[in-house]
Amino acid sequence: MDVLHVILQILLGITSLLLTLLILLHKGRGGGLSDMFGGGMSSGLSSSGVAERNLNRFTIILGVTWGVVIIALGLIMRFSGVGDS
């Protein structure tokens, strides 16, 4: 189980970084914290293009993967006794 644990930790690190980058690539829609940092200056709510829809899909898939990895790591740690003193 040690190999699986290490693989899942590496996967968690990679998915965390990629998820952060994908979230930062999204356009600000205004009305929230993006207004505070100048994002409210954009022109209205434009319709999503193909690139924006693909970015949304990749972000959702990566977010679900990230959640599954965290749950799997938690279950492994819970039932294998990793971290017990």
UniProtKB/TrEMBL annotation:
It comes from the Bacteria. The chain crosses the membrane at residues 6-25, 58-79. It is a multi-pass membrane protein. Its main location: membrane. Keywords: Cell membrane, Membrane, Protein transport, Translocation, Transmembrane, Transmembrane helix, Transport. It is found in: Cell membrane; Membrane. InterPro entries: SecG. Pfam families: SecG. The keyword Secreted does not apply. Belongs to the SecG family. Involved in protein export. Participates in an early event of protein translocation. This is Protein-export membrane protein SecG. The lineage of its organism: Bacteria, Bacillati, Actinomycetota, Actinomycetes, Micrococcales.
